[in-house]
Amino acid sequence: MNETKQGFRFLTQRYPAFGFPRYRRFWLASLASVGSIQLVSIGYGWLMFELTDSPLDLGLLGAVSSISYITMAILGGAIADRFDKRLILVATSTVTALLLAVIGFLDALDWIRYWQILLIAGLGSCVSGIDWPTRHSFFPHLIAPSAMLSAVALNSILWQATAMSIPALGGVILAWFGTPVVFLLGAVGFLTMAAVVWRIDVHIEGSRHNSVHHQIAEGVQFILRNRVVLLLITLSYCAMLLGASYVQLMPAFVKLLGVGEIGFGLLLAAKGLGAIIGAVVVGALNPGRYYGVLLLSAASLSGVLVLGFVGAVMIPSYILALLAAAAASIFSSIFIVLTASALQIMTPAHLLGRVMGIEGIAYSMIPLGGLLIGVGTIHVGLPVAAMTSVSVFLLIVLAIAVGAATIRRLDETALSKIAPSVGTASR
């Protein structure tokens, strides 16, 4: 018992956010729903390919999901700021659970058709466009501003850990029970999220004094008028579009390396492990006045290491590629956590949903960046196209580092002083 208490005390010292009971419950509930997201993403792709045996339809599934999310994300941020965030999360989790239950039963009864998969996946992504900004504007109300960095790191650890573990578990479930069980388990995960969030004792009144259109414009204006916020969001978009999009072409890199499915799986696992290490490290850090320097350095190093990964592919050396991919993910994770934390802290509470909704679109840039590299591959080959993309990203980071002293001089203490009051979190 004493060892358990000491372990918990050590955890909360390194990651203060975990010392807040309401955040702890939210994090554990998120484990169920995020795990479900990872699980059903496998189910959608597997079921679609089973039905159509068409890579084009798989690409269409991804396009429908991305476009649906991007279309809804900005509106979703406004919705998150207009209504009680806790109730929105209960609603989005419940609706997602119902959609997954529907596709699970259709699949079990052998009534499923490919257009139904596209429709339900698209609707689910629309709901995610509301859910994502709401999640990211909800949890700051459960902690003190000083615990923000550790909270964002813990959220990142959750996503990366499930991204590593759930695909393997999903493969076993698919083999033993089939896709209907995958979707039904996903529904259970989201119902768990809804039930736990419903019982979290926090009421966050939204602001409905203006129209949705006016609120969206207000969020965009805040970003455009706040140079630091604008530069951080721009950097996030560029990081995903140009620096991280090589992941979309990973099967092609694996072919150049001459390794099979197992090598592919290990490469993805190495990336996931690197991301977890980065989140664990940055969550326990105290960057102080070097916050901005660390953020820009992490962005730069992630790009340089991606260049190293492509170089290892060209040799080819699988071991070097494995190490470079893991190391690139470490620094990419550090950059992502620091950027998200700074945005959370600098954004006023009443605008948080809209700003995080716009920032969240960055992750939908990865497939688009993969498409750009794919087009470049036709003309100059995959390695050169990927290196060109990452090199442009590094030039953008360099331009911001040299020309934007406000980013370079970001100070964690100064950020904490300007943190908006978002709640009355207590330990």
Summed up:
This protein is mostly helical and 427 residues long. 81% of the residues lie in helices and 0% in strands. The protein is built from 18 helices and no strands.
Largest sheet: none
Secondary structure category: mainly alpha
Corresponding CATH superfamily of the largest domain? MFS general substrate transporter like domains
Strand content range: under 5%
Oligomer: single chain
Q: Tally of extended strands?
A: 0
Rg result: 21 Å
What's the architecture of the largest domain, going by CATH?
Up-down Bundle
Distance between the termini: 21 Å
CATH topology of the largest domain: Growth Hormone, Chain: A
Uncertain stretches of 5 or more adjacent residues: none
Order of helices and strands: HHHHHHHHHHHHHHHHHH
Shape: globular
Q: Could you describe the 3D structure shown?
A:
The protein is mostly helical and 427 residues long. It folds into 2 domains: 18-199, MFS general substrate transporter like domains (Growth Hormone, Chain: A); 212-419, Up-down Bundle (Growth Hormone, Chain: A). The chain is built from 18 helices and no strands. The longest helix is centred in the N-terminal third of the chain and has 32 residues, at 21-52. The protein is globular, with a radius of gyration of 21 Å. The two termini are 21 Å apart. The model has no long low-confidence stretch (mean pLDDT 84).
Descriptive tags:
single chain, 427 residues, mainly alpha, Growth Hormone, Chain: A, 2 domains, 18 helices, 81% helix, 0% strand
